[in-house]
Amino acid sequence: MDCNIETDEGKYKREFECLANMGWGSYGYVVKVRHKLTNDIHAIKIFHKVISDKINESVQNECRCLSQMNSDFVVKFRNAWIEGQILHIQTEFCDYSLQKIISVKNALLDFGWGPEISRQLSLIDYFISYELFDELTKSLNYLHTLNPPIMHRDLNPANTLVLNAVSGHGRQFVKICDFGYAKPHKQKGQSNTINLGTLHYMAPEVGYEKHYDPMSDIYSLGRICCDLFRVDISKSSWSYGKFMLEKYKGWRTLIVTMLTGPNFWDRPTCEKILATTSAWQYKDIFLQECQWLSQIRSDFVVEFRSAWREEYRQYIETEFCDYNMREIIDIKNCLFSQPSVDDTSAVYALALIDYFIAYELFEELTRSLNYLHTLDIPIIHRNLTPESILVINTVFNSGGQYVKLSNFGYAKLHIFNGQPHTIDERVINYMAPEVAHSKYYDLKSDIYSLGLICCELFDVSPFSFKNKINEKSASLKEKYLQLEEPISDMLNSPMYDLRPTCTQILSRMRAWRLSLDEMLTIREMLDQISNIIVTYSENEFFHNFLVTKLSARIDESTVQQSVESDIPTLAAPDPSINDSPFIDYNVLNAIEGDIIEIVVNGERCSTIWGVYVGGDQVVYVCPESHCLLNQSLETLCCDDSERCRVNNLVEVSESRQLSRRPTDSILCDAFRATIKYSRNLPTDSRGHNVGIHFVTKCRFGHQFCEECVGQEMVEII
Fold first, then answer.
1. Highest mean pLDDT among 300-314, 441-455, 695-709
2. What is the CATH classification number for the domain harbouring 35?
3. Which domain-ending residue is among 318, 343, 369?
4. What's the average model confidence in pLDDT over 632-636?
5. Which parts form a coiled-coil structure per UniProt (predicted)?
6. Is residue 35 packed enough to be buried (19+ CB in 10 Å), middle (13-18) or exposed (0-12)?
7. CA angle (279, 284, 289) in 5-degree steps
8. Are residues 123 and 223 in the same domain?
């Protein structure tokens, strides 16, 4: 033999210790050995004594190919020598063949587990199969992108090796070996030997056509893909079940193109295959939740701190929340829904408390979901359940959020209408029907979940609404009847696009609120039963929640009643303002709903807070007449730029990521705040622009300026 393969008698026993026989083949057998001097583990392929000229050519070719390639994608060549006329090839040791991995994997899946375990194993099996195929495709892509490209010509599971472990992130488990039939593809149309390789994995053109190219390896890759994912392209069966039906359709279509014949040039390249399959990767829910939580910073969402993995466990550190919504609902129903007292006034008060708590929790939940749905790129939560909604025991200001969203493992950006999403067959009672049956759904799927949670909070049934209402206090039946139509709209199916948005729900909820007298009744009753509530529920949440929310609502209602007569319908432009143009208003760059600050510097410095409503029109509260006026910027800004300036405070406060509100709601809060503070906004000791605090609260329902969070928080309303 030649090709730099030297004779070295006694080398095998002199330098190596045999540890195990790894398998036999037509040319010889492979052993696992330990080098006696270095203790390193290697593999040695030992050929049979008699080697024909044809086999000799193949062996030399394999040694030549392996010695020229030094990559994680192929098994590493160490040495080759002849000993007693027997050829020895020393290579990197790999623990298993892909053939062995597939066999064990399939046996484990077919063991006969119960339905739930089988489903979980199917997810694991899919993940393993995807990663193995991805690494194998990258390895083959390495060969096909060399200069010149190399055709393997015998790619099959037995010739693909797998390491037991790798050191370092991004290292390859999968390595291609057995390069006896490999050949450089130097030019298009070159002549190649026919009928090479393993029959089942051999491309049709290799059996009869001399002029083939690296696309023959793509056919073999397609056959291996069938083995990994257990796909029979002649049938429509799929071992992973319906919950991955969309992925199956994609894989099946891809495999068909990989097995295309006789037009083998139409098969996809490895690079195209990798680009296509990247969308079918099984998402790591742990990683996905960490990514979402780290990107979202808001009182509406549980705060993310850090995340890490230890061995087989995964940890996510977040803000601590005392309860989930399921626990709150269960305790609330036990405490207030069916009071066992004889005093009718106490029964009425407890029914009011039950309703008030349900209303306030549902409003906070809807605002939290509205935050996700009104981001610059909206987010569909897709797993909204009472267990995924957390509740804190105490807030430190009247405008703080008790309710926070969590569990973002299934959340997804909704970039455009008609965007396809994953069909999900998780058995979840709160999942919208379209999520299980169609990939074309949108933010309204969360509204369905919100509607079901609303039913639980108010203890009503969407299917026998009036029967459930009859169990409620007679004095509150009218309040509960107002819920029927909105809940029905939220659960609309299959025409889910007719479901209301969170903003529309919040607008309709104003009619559900208790009156000032009803809230005063609750406060009076609360003084009598607060100890009972804390003792029975074994926590202070309901007491803290009721005190904070009642105080805020009663103050708001008192202010509203005191100024209600001063809030007119939208008036005509104020005729006292002349029509001389304002020089700089055109650079405002506002959109509908933005808060506008107009400051006039004259003998008396005055500030006008308004809402831009489009068409250069601003709706504002006149500081003199206390009327709501609608005027153009041109007429409103009647002085020159030295005496009058216009600011879009949305841009100044840099709060576009926060949740938007309807303009009428902004105006009401702005007017009430003006009355509450006698038209003098509060100041802070840092001299910060409190106007920014004010409009941030009015526009977004957020009580603090972002610049002051963690330094000095100034409560606005």
1. 441-455
2. 3.30.200.20
3. 318
4. 62
5. none
6. middle
7. 110
8. yes
Radius of gyration of the chain (CA): 36
User: Does some domain include residue 602?
Assistant: yes
Query: Rounded to the nearest 10 degrees, how much is the dihedral formed by the CA atoms of 307, 384, 325, 456?
Result: -170
Query: Average pLDDT, whole number, for the chain?
Result: 75
Pair 339, 350: CB distance under 8 Å:
yes
Distances from the Cα of 141 to the Cα of 67, 210, 302, 542, angstroms: 19, 22, 43, 62
**How many other C-beta atoms are found inside a 10 Å radius of the C-beta of residue 587?**
8
Asked whether residue 527 is domain-assigned, the answer is: yes
Q: Confirm if 489 and 500 have CB atoms less than 8 A apart.
A: yes
**SS3 readout for 419-458:** CCCCCCCCCCCCCCHHHHHCCCCCCHHHHHHHHHHHHHHH
pLDDT digits (tens, 9 = 90+) for 484-526: 999 999 998 878 888 999 988 988 898 899 998 999 988 888 8
Band the pLDDT of 112: cuts 50, 70, 90: confident
Domain count, the chain: 5
**The CATH number of the domain where 532 resides is what?**
1.10.510.10
Give the domain range for residue 537: 323-563
Q: How many Å apart are CA 292 and CA 383, to the nearest integer? A: 14
CA 430, 432, 433, 438 torsion-angle sign:
negative
SS3 178: coil
Q: Give the Cα separation of 41 and 76 in Å (integer).
A: 13
Between β-strands 412-413 and 628-632, what pairing exists: parallel, antiparallel or unpaired? Answer: unpaired
- Amino acid 165 reads A
User: pLDDT for 457-488, tens place per residue?
Assistant: 999 988 888 888 877 878 888 889 999 999 99
Q: What is the DSSP string of 221-232?
A: HHHHHHHHHT--
DSSP string, 241-253: -GGGHHHHHHHHH
Residue 216 included in any domain = yes
Dmax (CA) of the chain: 114
Amino acid in the structure at residue 652: V
Other CB atoms closer than 10 Å to residue 239's CB: what's the count?
17
Contact (CB, 8 A) for 431 and 366: no
One domain for residues 84 and 105: no
| CA separation, residue 516 to residues 15, 263, 346, 508, 553 (Å) | 93, 79, 18, 18, 8
* Residue 683 belongs to domain with CATH number: 3.90.1720
Q: Are 388 and 328 contained in the same domain?
A: yes
Same domain? For 76 and 104 the reply is no
Contact between 392 and 354 (Cβ < 8 Å): no
Structure tokens at 284: 């790591």
Whole-angstrom Cα distance, residue 694 to residue 680? 11
Same domain, 411 and 298: no
Q: Which residue has the tokens 């949440």?
A: 541
Are 328 and 309 in the same domain? no
The torsion angles phi and psi of 109, rounded to 5 degrees, stand at -70, -30
Contact 177, 158 (CB under 8 A): no
My answer on whether 86 and 114 are in the same domain is no
- Report yes or no on 79 lying in a domain: yes
State how far the alpha carbon of 553 is from the alpha carbons of 517, 558, 657, in Å.
11, 8, 27
CB distance 704 to 693 below 8 Å = yes
Residue bearing the bigger pLDDT, 609 or 234: 234
**Residue where a domain terminates, one of 77, 92, 107:** 92
For 258-275, the pLDDT digits (tens) are 998 778 888 999 999 988
Note whether 61 and 76 are same-domain residues: yes
